[in-house]
Amino acid sequence: xxxxxxxxxxxxxxxxxxxxxxxxxxxxxxxxHAFQKDRIIYTxxxxxxxxxxxQASESRSFQIVFNQKAAEMKxxxxxxxxxxxxxxxxxxxxxxxxxTTETAQTPAPETTSTAVRIPQAAVDARADxxxxxxxxxxxKRVGVIPAKTQWTTKEIHETVHDKNGYxxxxxxxxxxxxxxxxxxxxxxxxxxxxxxxxxxGALVFTCEDARDKEQNTDFKGMYTRIVDKFFKNLNKQMx
Length: 239
Known about the structure:
Elements: H1 2-14, E1 21-29, E2 40-43, H2 56-59, H3 62-70, E3 77-79, E4 87-91, H4 109-112, E5 115-119, H5 120-124, E6 129-145, E7 148-162, E8 165-179, E9 182-197, E10 203-214, H6 220-237
Parallel strand pairs: 2-3, 2-6
Antiparallel strand pairs: 1-10, 4-5, 6-9, 7-8, 9-10
Helix pairs in contact: 3-6
């Protein structure tokens, strides 16, 4: 709670000079699903179709980070190396982009809205959950804070002479203070995680983590924190 209260204060106090970070997280889980019985998770490769060509080099590390965080899950087996091959069709809500394999065939139109495609390897592994991580936004934008001028006062010390002799006098004059234009880079990263029941194909857990930061660096740190939060929250569901 303290952290949430401090953020608005920090942003207002250092908006012109300090790096700003904001996050927006949403999560849903099916209250009727017995997560405690899920012991094997099979994950799709990280879908980076939405990553721009300019950030392509960044996205190559996303799968490595995802696998590393998956390996930290306790009391749960996570298979993070999908195999190319046939796809199984299970009943469900929708087909997710990026969740199909290269050799999978397009389902009939009447099946498209009522099935989710998963790798046959997930079925062979007897997985309980099928997780699809999708990077929906990964970009940098340049922003500009315009130059501005504000007036302040300056004290002028003078020595004056009058009928009483010489003495010091202080007067105030208005002076302009100009803040030069500032250019900055905003980083935007949004990742969605969808978990499906392997028995029914139904979506049972989903979350989306959207973050932005005023900094010009790589996305690995932001992405690592997003993935770490996902696995921790999913792990809580399964206890």
